């Protein structure tokens, strides 16, 4: 990935953590803010993410400089942003990467009619890069082998209980996720109450204990970043891809090990709903270097195989 995400950007003074720090930058006129930042939202009630009727997207993040709240919207081809809290300057210095400035959609060449049509309908798609690994890793671990509804609920409960209110005038109910040390100190019964089993909670604790080393992955290329993240027991290819896609804006890091994606790709490109990971990667091979973008466009096309089996039944360990 070209460029480097600034590990310690130039600071801007924020008195008391509440005065806004403004920033404005030119951006592509066709930038779709919702499509670009949508993957960072973990469910409609995510306490760290909010989209408001005025077209703004609000994010509450834990940066290397501390908690911060970012509000951004696109007006007339320009991104207008404000940020609050100790992490305000860090968030604003990372704004171009967050909005896909380091992404190069012109490198993508559609080779299937379906993908070409979707690519033309969605010209505003950019691959976001947050530069924050743990922020995407923890909710991805929570999503391992459970329904997204369950995982979103667990994330919401844990962030609200152990995080802190988002700095500045963020919409009501927004929180910054806990810091790494706090994740390691959550009692076992609180994980249980949040409907998180011991395997997933243990993985999160192990990751939080080496958070500083994991955050270094944000400056690596895709394969090296995934390899770093997968050093933590309990983190495999599915979780590392879901993490690095967001933290690094990696256009080629396609998700493997997913219950639905191979069948969706196979159905869209070959009319075969029985496609496995190996066959999916073969179908996506014409897009090497851009396979994640190709998969996202397939998902955005809405072409999915007709459902034959019932949805995965949500589990609830809180009653055990």
UniProtKB/TrEMBL annotation:
GO terms for cellular component: cytoplasm; protein-DNA complex. SUPFAM superfamilies: DNA-glycosylase (SSF48150). Keywords: DNA damage, DNA repair. GO terms for molecular function: alkylated DNA binding; DNA-3-methyladenine glycosylase activity; DNA-7-methylguanine glycosylase activity. InterPro entries: Alkylbase_DNA_Glycosylase/TA, DNA_glycosylase. The keyword DNA repair applies. GO terms for biological process: base-excision repair, AP site formation; DNA alkylation repair. This is 3-methyladenine DNA glycosylase.
């Amino acid at each position: 990935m070209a460029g480097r995400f600034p590990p310690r950007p130039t600071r801007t003074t924020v008195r008391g953590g509440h005065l806004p720090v403004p920033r404005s930058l030119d951006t592509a006129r066709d930038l779709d803010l919702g499509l670009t930042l949508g993957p960072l939202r973990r469910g409609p009630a995510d306490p760290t993410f909010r989209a408001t009727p005025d077209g703004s997207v609000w994010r509450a993040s834990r940066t290397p400089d501390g908690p911060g709240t970012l509000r951004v919207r696109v007006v007339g081809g320009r991104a207008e942003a404000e940020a609050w809290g100790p992490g305000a300057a860090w968030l604003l210095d990372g704004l171009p990467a967050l909005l896909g400035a380091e992404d190069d959609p012109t490198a993508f060449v559609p080779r299937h009619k379906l993908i070409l049509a979707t690519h033309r309908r969605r010209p505003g798609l950019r691959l976001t890069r947050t530069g924050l690994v743990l922020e995407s890793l923890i909710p991805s671990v929570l999503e391992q082998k459970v329904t997204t509804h369950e995982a979103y609920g667990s994330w919401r409960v844990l962030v609200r209980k152990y995080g802190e209110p988002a700095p500045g005038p963020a919409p009501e109910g927004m929180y910054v996720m806990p810091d790494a040390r706090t994740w390691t100190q959550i009692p076992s019964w609180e994980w249980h109450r949040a409907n998180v089993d011991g395997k997933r909670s243990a993985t999160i604790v192990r990751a939080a204990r080496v958070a500083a080393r994991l955050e270094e992955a944000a400056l690596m290329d895709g394969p090296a970043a995934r390899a770093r993240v997968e050093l933590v027991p309990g983190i495999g290819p599915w979780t590392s891809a879901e993490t690095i896609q967001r933290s690094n804006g990696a256009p080629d890091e396609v998700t493997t090990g997913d219950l639905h994606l191979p069948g969706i790709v196979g159905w869209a490109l070959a009319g075969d709903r029985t496609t496995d990971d190996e066959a999916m990667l073969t179908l996506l091979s014409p897009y090497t270097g851009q396979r994640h973008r190709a998969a996202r466009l397939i998902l955005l096309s809405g072409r999915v195989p007709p459902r034959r089996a019932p949805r995965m039944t949500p589990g609830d360990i809180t009653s055990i």
